[in-house]
Write the structure tokens for this entry.
Amino acid sequence: MKSSGVKGIFGVTALIAVILGCVMFPGFAADNSVVLLILLYLPGFFVLVGLFEAWVSREFVVSRLGEKSGLKGSVYSFVMGCLIPGPLYLAFPLAGALLRKGISRFNVVLFIGAWSSFKVAEEIFELHFLGPRFLVLRVLLTVPFVVVVAFIVSKFCFDDE
Amino acid sequence: MLALVFNAIVLVVFLVCYFTDKDKSVHALRLSVRSFERIGPVFVVVILFLVFVQGLFSGDAVFAYVSGVSGLWGYLVAAFVGAIVHVPLFITFPVSGQLLALGVNPGYIAVLITSLVMVHTFSMPIEIKELGLKFALLRNFLCLVFAIVIGVLMGVLY
């Protein structure tokens, strides 16, 4: 996994995949491509994960976000999910890193839920285009479900680890 | 645009870390490369899948389809379409706003948005790799069901 050969093969594959995609679907490259957006996010994202793994100690995560962190830990996880910009598929590697550092299961699912539904930057968009009534209703209805999903998933989905 | 802001923020954070502790930050970069090597190949799969789906359905077609159905069927269609397709949010919200102004059931729009943001079929390989198959399946399934529930409630309350 560490050899530069593997990295090289991987890089070439990625490049071919993207080029192939643009050739197969010409309209795609034109209407400013989701793929480009993903690629733009990646460098910052992986640097962030590295920084997180090197700088944040396990004790810190366990005490702030672990099993015994209580309501405060859940609120932190939720707020963290709302504030970090980026699409959902980037939340998973970060969630994985958090789990390895000792965040509680409930909090990690809550983090993913908040990340997916309540991005601060995106809510501004929603407010602008769909209006305050729609935004407030949707958020009020969605929050309880995010908590329920976190509860169910954290109860049933980790026993194989 | 948001991606650039994101990268800029990370760069600032990294520089602050770098001037605080050089060795630790270089070590962090090494960890970054390692996690890229670990999860990178899965990203390629996801990007390929995304390109494929994107080619099959354009964003406009999705919204046109959702606005053309009615009844309970509409909620189901909106939920499944939202689960499979990936429409960037800077397109989703403006188009949803137009549909809302045109009088499309706000419930459908809520289902579509909820399903689009919470249920990500195309990125499931990443979710499975990081958090396990069971986790990914149950989370996506629950979110799909709740997207419909949220939408029905929105349709009643809005």
